[in-house]
TrEMBL record:
InterPro entries: ConA-like_dom_sf (IPR013320), GH11/12 (IPR013319), GH11_AS_1 (IPR018208), GH11_dom (IPR033123), Glyco_hydro_11 (IPR001137)
Protein name (database record): Endo-1,4-beta-xylanase
GH11 domain location: 33-222
Residues annotated as catalytic: 118 (nucleophile), 209 (proton donor)
Organism: Patellaria atrata CBS 101060
Record's keyword terms, sorted: Carbohydrate metabolism, Glycosidase, Hydrolase, Polysaccharide degradation, Signal, Xylan degradation
Catalytic reactions on record: Endohydrolysis of (1->4)-beta-D-xylosidic linkages in xylans
Similarity-based family: Belongs to the glycosyl hydrolase 11 (cellulase G) family.
Lineage: superkingdom: Eukaryota
Signal peptide (from-to): 1-24
Pfam families: Glyco_hydro_11
Amino acid sequence: LITFAIMVSFSFLTVLSLIPVVLTAPPVLIERGVTPSSSVGLAASFWSNWSEGSGSYRCSNGAGGSYTATWSGTNGGFVCGKGWNPGGPRTVKYSGTYTPTGPGYLAIYGWTQNPLIEYYVIESYGELDPGEPWTRKGNFTFEEGTYEIFTSTRVNKPSIEGTRTFQQYWSVRTEKRVGGTVTTSRHFDEWAKLGMRLGRHNYMIVATEGYTNNRVLASGSSSINVE
């Protein structure tokens, strides 16, 4: 695979999104943990923890909506976080610390089915280095910030339904932050305006993710609390 590091600057991102690039894929989250009932009023008690490859990484499930993660020399990938099953339109409030090096994200992350969609609302990152070429769809601004919108397609890759071909939807915050409020319904609505349709919601978490891009090994730590 040809690896390519995407610059942090979003003016550069806009140009780069027009160039076909193949990048090392971030890990696909495999659902693990306790599944609470489907009430959207529940606290963020759904825990998910996945990893592959070599490296030193540790994710620890804390009380309530809290968790911690540390990683270094990651050759492969990991992703863990706290949230809800099912996910869907809700106001997500989170706080904490996140200090990454190399490729990886702090994001609201989830899946839908029929259609099968993997989605990210990226709040912060080390290197912004997605696995497939992005197609820029637009941007929007509201009281929570400005986000660039992208799509990408994964072909015959692991998913919550096994090996499938599916689309990824991305909202990427133009100014990194660790802590705040994310109104997921606003992202879903903005995606829908661009023809990016979601299906029936599966789980949704506030996730810490790190992975190799065959050039840089990820490392860092996070301590997150989801309300």
